[in-house]
Design a protein that fits this description.
The complex is a heterodimer of chains A (112) and B (113). Chain A is an all-beta fold and 112 residues long. Chain A has no helices and 11 strands. In chain A, 0% of the residues lie in helices and 52% in strands. By secondary structure, chain B is mainly beta. In chain B, a hairpin with a 2-residue loop joins strand 9 and strand 10. Classes of the chains: A mainly beta (112), B mainly beta (113). At the A-B interface, strand 4, strand 5, strand 9 and strand 10 of A face strand 4, strand 5, strand 9 and strand 10 of B.
């Protein structure tokens, strides 16, 4: 069972570069989300989606874009990387309302 | 603004001790509260609570929700070194026909042998 697959696991970017973090799930989950985790800050919600074609902003959306063209995929785009975006990024999915989330293994991103 | 606050931020105990972790919240249109355990990498699910006063148990872990006072506690009895982890609380809130999960900062638990 693949579950939630995030790629890449590690990435180093230069300031100003753009990139896409990939997230795919094979559980036919309706809800998908992206979080960033910084020391002492817990998981902060960047963007989320309640179904294909529907996305919304979380707490810290600036500098990030998302789209949800299929149920399975929810990529996160960094438009112009900044050192403040150095973090560990987690993608999560869940079946729907009031259900447990399944997390990907995380992407450690460093922006220099 | 929706908010989830966990306390304490960190805790060091010895094996065999009992610990209580706290999670308080202020969200619009609460639906559920979830606890996760995070060791090295991805958080893993522990409990989901939707009703006040009903204790959920799994082995040495238990949790309860108080929707009137807006908090939940996670108890771990007879702690073991394998319980060392960050424990995350998340609250599900609905707004304008959609829903989202908001996490607290977590409690870092270290259990010493």
């Amino acid at each position: 069972n693949a579950g939630v697959t995030q790629t890449p696991k590690f990435q180093v970017l230069k300031t100003g570069q753009s990139m896409t973090l990939q997230c795919a799930q094979d559980m036919n989950h309706e809800y998908m989300s992206w979080y960033r985790q910084d020391p002492g800050m817990g998981l902060r919600l960047i963007h989320y989606s309640v179904g294909a074609g529907i996305t919304d902003q979380g707490e810290v959306p600036n500098g990030y874009n998302v789209s949800r063209s299929t149920t399975e995929d929810f990529p996160l785009r960094l438009l112009s990387a900044a050192p403040s975006q150095t973090s560990v990024y987690f993608c999560a999915s869940s079946y729907g309302m009031s259900t447990e989330a399944f997390f990907g293994q995380g992407t450690r991103l460093t922006v220099v | 603004e929706d908010k989830v606050v966990q306390s304490p931020l960190s805790l060091v105990v010895h094996e065999g001790d009992t610990v209580t972790l706290n999670c308080s919240y202020e969200v619009t249109n609460f639906r559920s509260l979830l606890w996760y355990k995070q060791e090295k990498k991805a958080p893993t699910f522990l409990f989901m609570l939707t009703s006040s006063g009903i204790e959920k148990k799994s082995g040495r872990l238990s949790s309860i929700l108080d929707k009137k006072e807006l908090f939940s506690i996670l108890n771990i009895t007879a702690t073991q070194t394998g319980d060392s982890a960050v424990y995350l609380c998340a609250v599900e809130a609905t707004t304008s026909g959609t829903y989202k999960y908001i996490f607290g900062t977590g409690t870092r638990l270290k259990v010493l042998a």
